[in-house]
C-alpha cells in the first residue's frame, strides 16, 4: 500500500525532524502544539490520502521525543514509499543516444526509495547525467560538470552545500554556433535527493538548461 512518492517521503522526514526539534528545544507546550498543528497542515497539503488508515500511519510523527524514535518512524514509513522506477539498459541508451560508450552507475547499490532523480558523473569526460521522470515519462539531461570547490545554493534542492556548475550546450540558429546554459547544483546528488521535497524545483532547473 504505497501512498507516498519519494519527494513526499523526504518531506515527511523533514517534518518529523521539525517536530523533534520543537520538543527538544522548547518546554512551552503552546509552542510545541503550534508546530504540530503547522506540520499537520503541511502534510495534508502535500500528501493525498485515499483513506483514514493511511493518515493514521503517519500519526506517530506527533509523539516523537527522541532521536531513536525518529529513526524508527522513518524506517516504518519507508515501506509505504513508491520507489523511483529503475530504468532499463535500453532506456538509458535511448535517453543518451550520442553516448556510444555510456557508463552508468552500479544500479544495485542505489536505494530507489530515496531518490527523486538519478545522477552520476562520468569521471573520464566530466559529464554529469540526470535521469528523472516527468508525468511518468523518463527523461534525461547531460552536461559538463565543473567542481567549483565552493559553497552555494543548489538550484534543485535549494540547500546550502558544495555546488558545481552544470553546463549544457546545443546548436544555435546559425550553423557552427552553440548556445550554452548553466546553473549550480549539488556535487553530492544523494544528499540533494534527501533534501529535495518539491519536484517542481528539479523540473524548473532542467527547463532552464534545455
Automatic annotation (TrEMBL):
InterPro entries: EF-G-binding_C, EF-G-binding_N, EF-G_N_sf. Keywords: Elongation factor, Protein biosynthesis. Pfam families: EF-G-binding_N, FBP_C. Residues 3-85 form the Elongation factor G-binding protein N-terminal domain. Residues 99-197 form the Elongation factor G-binding protein C-terminal treble-clef zinc-finger domain. Gene3D superfamilies: 1.20.1280.250. One of its GO terms (molecular function) is translation elongation factor activity. It comes from the Bacteria. This is Elongation factor G-binding protein. It comes from Lysinibacillus telephonicus.
Amino acid at each position: 500500500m504505497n501512498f507516498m512518492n519519494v519527494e513526499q517521503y523526504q518531506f515527511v522526514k523533514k517534518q518529523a525532524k521539525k517536530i523533534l526539534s520543537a520538543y527538544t528545544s522548547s518546554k512551552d507546550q503552546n509552542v510545541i502544539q503550534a508546530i504540530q498543528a503547522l506540520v499537520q497542515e503541511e502534510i495534508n497539503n502535500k500528501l493525498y490520502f485515499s483513506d483514514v488508515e493511511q493518515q493514521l500511519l503517519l500519526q506517530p510523527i506527533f509523539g516523537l521525543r527522541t532521536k531513536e524514535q525518529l529513526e524508527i518512524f522513518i524506517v516504518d514509513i519507508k515501506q509505504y514509499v513508491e520507489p523511483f522506477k529503475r530504468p532499463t539498459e535500453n532506456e538509458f541508451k535511448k535517453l543518451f543516444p550520442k553516448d556510444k560508450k555510456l557508463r552508468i552507475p552500479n544500479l544495485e547499490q542505489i536505494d530507489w526509495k530515496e531518490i527523486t532523480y538519478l545522477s552520476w558523473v562520468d569521471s573520464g569526460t566530466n559529464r554529469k547525467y540526470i535521469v528523472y521522470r516527468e508525468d511518468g515519462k523518463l527523461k534525461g539531461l547531460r552536461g559538463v560538470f565543473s567542481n567549483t570547490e565552493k559553497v552555494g545554493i543548489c538550484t534543485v534542492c535549494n540547500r546550502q552545500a558544495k555546488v558545481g556548475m552544470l553546463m549544457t550546450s546545443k546548436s544555435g540558429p546559425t550553423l557552427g554556433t552553440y548556445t550554452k546554459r548553466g546553473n549550480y547544483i549539488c556535487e553530492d546528488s544523494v544528499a540533494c535527493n534527501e533534501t529535495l521535497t518539491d519536484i517542481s524545483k528539479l523540473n524548473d532547473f532542467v527547463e532552464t538548461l534545455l
